[in-house]
Design brief:
Chain A: Belongs to the binding-protein-dependent transport system permease family. CysTW subfamily. Chain A is an all-alpha fold. Chain A is 77% helix and 1% strand. Chain B has 12 helices and no strands. The chains are: A mainly alpha, B mainly alpha.
């Protein structure tokens, strides 16, 4: 009896305690790697934001609030406000474009649903720079879009898209609209079509049915999409560089400038922390929203 | 669609007809929605089409197409700087792919199976690269290397790209690991296999499609990545995407159209491959990014 029980017991126990220990060892290399390279480096940015520079412009560690105070300069607050405005406008436009597209594919796509979503996702994960470059050619003064608008009489010779704020927003929308389409499509796919039918049977017009039935049912997908678009749009600097002029720079361009041309690393770090702060506030707002939604759903 | 159809035996009383027309109207495809979607697809592919078209242009113009020619492709092949950048990018992608797949698969296994407090902390750390904008990760990585006194080079790009890609591999693998039946592994061990043998002979083969898909996707993402590479690369050699960035900042260069077309074609093929690898193994569904994960 004891002879038999012995080996069986250890076998059975092994997946428990020894297993946990083994899986912890599996987790460690990746986690330590990310802690060492990413978490540590993010902390370094925070430390350098209160650092100084010597006469040669090399960064020095220390405690100096000069760079943080410099952020209050109107030159910087203006750029921050503009970035926020562009990013929020991008979010709204992405929602307005992505909703009908995701709705059409999810409800009328039939057997081509997956193919159509793949046809949207695949090019979006292909080279971002080349896509943005192609988009800037499309939007240029002699590009196909303005020529088409001119021949339709919707634009005249003076109409410009490049080097305007609208051009930058158009770039951001083109760059990130897929992040709105994916969660919206997932939400609309799950949507029970009979709900829409019920709305119509209760004599709600298409508009009222949409606002009282479809939209509330997919609000979680929409908020997820808003966050997923806001995060990269706020930190982007390629769109403002290719589609905008000197008056349209965003906070990403400032950061890039401080680290490459301007060589003021503490100020660049302070700007980076400011960007992170804005994004963190956005994330917190999103988390509160989803928690509220979940609480309501449970009720 | 079957939901929209009424039983055909329904008697056509006035009320019925009314409901029926209503239902039929709901089932018809609204033309406006179809038009908006078609316009969206057109604008989505227009830039890609423009780059491709003008890469075959005989003239150095981005507005007038003047006959088919391969001169920009020839110019690219004869450009030693661009060709060496291509080699650099391929090396970076291969190393980043290998490193992040090993670390990411192990992390995914650990995260799913280790339900301790350390496990949930590791799960949080894993999310940081996904919610941090690339410019922040780029700045942070550059500062770390400079702070440690490391000269920026191809090696530093590789290290940063691995850091950034681990999370992708883990996210892709995690749901697959969670879907595995742990009893199969236990059965293998009851039949005399050690833990390692069970992992090597049972678990990893079951994960192979997802691992391959993750590897191909990471290769493409790293090859195409620009921001992180831009902040962490040395002066020479530079990855191809950084070269492209410098080129398109300073005006029209038709060679870039040719390079861009090749890169787009390459990464579109790779990403499509990553999406369909699980199907090649006879599994439905493909990658989870399609279901909005």
């Amino acid at each position: 009896m004891t002879l038999l029980r012995g080996p069986f017991r250890t076998r059975r126990r092994a997946p428990g305690a020894a297993g946990t220990r083994m899986w912890t060892w599996f987790m460690l290399p990746g986690t330590l790697w990310m802690t060492g390279f990413l978490i540590a480096s993010l902390l370094l940015v925070a430390v350098l934001a209160v650092g100084t520079t010597d006469e040669l412009g090399n960064p020095r560690f220390g405690f100096d609030l000069g760079s943080v105070r410099a952020l209050a300069d109107p030159a910087y607050t203006e750029v921050l406000a503009r970035s926020l405005g562009y990013a929020l406008l991008t979010c709204v436009i992405c929602l307005l474009i992505a909703y009908p597209v995701a709705y059409t594919i999810a409800l009328y796509g039939g057997r081509y649903k997956h193919a159509m979503i793949a046809a949207i996702v695949v090019p979006f994960f292909a080279n971002y720079l080349v896509r943005m470059y192609g988009w800037s050619v499309v939007l240029s003064d002699d590009g196909p879009l303005l020529r088409a608008l001119r021949s339709l009489g919707l634009a005249d010779g003076g109409t410009k898209i490049l080097n305007t704020g609208f051009g930058v927003v158009a770039g951001l929308v083109y760059g990130f609209v897929v992040f709105m389409i994916i969660p919206l499509y997932a939400a609309l796919e799950r949507l029970d079509v009979s709900l829409i039918e019920a709305g119509r049977d209760l004599y709600g017009g298409p508009v009222r049915t949409f606002f009282f039935v479809t939209l509330p049912a997919t609000r979680q997908g929409a908020t997820a999409g808003l966050v997923l678009v806001f995060l990269p749009a706020m930190g982007d600097f390629v769109s403002a560089q290719l589609m905008g002029g000197p008056d349209q720079i965003m906070i990403g361009n400032l950061i890039q400038d401080k680290f490459f041309q301007g060589q003021n690393w503490p100020l660049g770090s302070a700007l980076t922390m400011l960007l992170m702060l804005v994004l963190l506030l956005g994330m917190l707002g999103y988390l509160r929203r989803t928690r509220k939604d979940e609480a309501e759903a449970r009720r | 669609m079957t939901l929209l159809r009424l039983p055909s035996s329904a008697a056509p009383t006035p009320a019925r007809t009314r409901i029926r027309t209503r239902r039929r109207r709901a089932g018809r495809r609204p033309r406006i929605l179809i038009a908006v979607t078609a316009l969206f697809f057109a604008l989505l592919y227009l830039p890609i089409a423009v780059v491709t078209l003008f890469s075959f242009n005989a003239r150095k113009s981005l507005t007038v197409f003047d006959g088919f020619s391969l001169r920009w492709y020839r110019a690219f092949l004869q450009d030693d700087v661009l060709i060496s950048s291509l080699g650099t990018s391929l090396r970076i992608s291969l190393v980043a792919m290998a490193g992040s797949v090993v670390l990411g698969v192990a992390l995914a296994l650990g995260l799913v199976r280790c339900r301790t407090r350390l496990g949930s902390l590791a799960g949080l750390i894993m999310l940081v690269p996904l919610i941090t904008p690339e410019i922040v990760t780029g700045v942070a990585s550059m500062l770390l290397f400079k702070g440690l006194g490391v000269t920026l080079s191809t090696g530093t790009v590789m290290l940063s790209e691995i850091t950034f890609s681990i999370s992708y591999v883990t996210v892709i693998l995690r749901s697959r690991v969670a879907a595995l039946n742990p009893e199969v592994e236990e059965a293998a061990m009851d039949l005399g296999a050690t833990r390692w043998q069970a992992l090597r002979l049972v678990t990893l083969p079951a994960l192979l499609p997802a691992v391959l898909a993750g590897a191909v996707l990471v290769f493409a993402l790293v090859f195409d990545d620009f921001v992180l590479a831009y902040f962490t690369t040395g002066v020479d050699p530079q990855p191809l995407s950084v070269r492209i960035y410098s080129a398109i900042r300073f005006g029209v260069q038709p060679t870039i159209n040719a390079v861009g077309t090749l890169m787009l074609a390459g990464s579109i093929a790779l990403i499509a491959l990553a999406l369909f690898i699980p199907r090649l193994f006879g599994r439905r569904g493909g990658l989870d990014i399609l279901s909005g994960e």
